[in-house]
Amino acid sequence: MIYCGIDWAETHHDIALIDDTGKLLAKRRIMDDAAGYQMLLDLLAEYGDTQDAPIPVSIETSRGLLVSVLRQGKRKVFAVNPMAAARYRDRHGVSRKKSDPGDALVLANILRTDMPMHRPLPDDSDLARAVAVLARAQQDATWNRQQASNQLRSLLREYYPAALQAFATWQNGLCRPEARVLLAVAPTPAKAASLSLAQLRSALKRAGRVRGIDAEAQRLREVFRAEYAHQPPLVEDALGKQMLSLLRQLDAACTATDDLAEAVEESFRQHPDAEIILSFPGLGPQTGARVLAEIGDDRSRFTDARGLKSYAGSAPITRASGKKHHVGRRMIKNNRLHNTGYLWAFAALTASPGANAHYRHRRAVGDWHAQAQRHLFNRMLGQLFHCLKTGELFDEHQAFPSSLAVAA
Description:
Distance between the termini: 62 Å
Strand content: 5-15%
Number of strands: 7
Number of helices: 19
Order of helices and strands: EEEHEHEHHHHHHHHHHHHEEHHHHH
Strand order of the largest sheet: 3-2-1-4-5
Low-confidence stretches: none
Largest sheet: 5 strands, mixed
């Protein structure tokens, strides 16, 4: 058996090949380009790498062109956490020496000694991996949009309280097109107070509003012309220019979020698992795509539902030593899936009577809000694992039989 370890870097990669006894067979340094990748494949083939019996590879990353080249065929690629690799390095010496070729050798020895303790990268389909790229990008864009909105809100509190009061009744507030168009037209309170009804109606129409324009324009005019405290004129104009720069960032973030949302919904609906995932209460196209992105479509990735729950961070973890015994929430988890699970459980409260009854029961026995939601997410994640494995759609009566009886 031959094992390969790759110390990944930005411009070059160090390769180490060892046998069952730990003997170093070959070491190379390749560049991060097509010629370097071909040199790596030739080196593996020289030591017996074939399509039916590929040499396993250990590397410290799970993304990139190099990993994509290695994952072709039946090859097992193990993504080892850099911190875990550093702990393995300390097993072979106490001098704390470090080098790139030495790290490649350590990664190869990890497979030689502890390969059963590590899991290879899942064999997801290309469509599932494409959905994962789009879903994660859309999730990042949503977070960036919220961050830009918070920065803009913080600035408006310093000199423009009328804007915050005017947009307080709108869902999504500053992220709505009407709010962004009005702020671009009137970056300061003085300009907002001088807007006429015709200008307000025109701004609302440009933002895409089609109903209640006259009433909304009248309400905005009254809010903008009310009495508020003001900054000095020069300071107010300067703050208005700063606000316009933040507004351009928010516009770009909103556009990116909307475009990625359309792309991820289109790709997600093409996947065979989309019908099963969307049958669950509380999961829409975007949140469903995020769930699929993190769990993939490789059925052998998780041996049972407990492994999936631990991966998502919904299953509790036990720490016991001597007389101490503590059961608490899991800190090491997939943060993206855990965040999506919180939204999933929250939406399921209104979409599923059984989920709502289960949540109320957990609150009645002493759980606080986040604990009850995490418990609900944990249960529904186990149901999702079962449905994906058997190909069944979600059934409310089978999922929450006792909860439905109590609710009735």
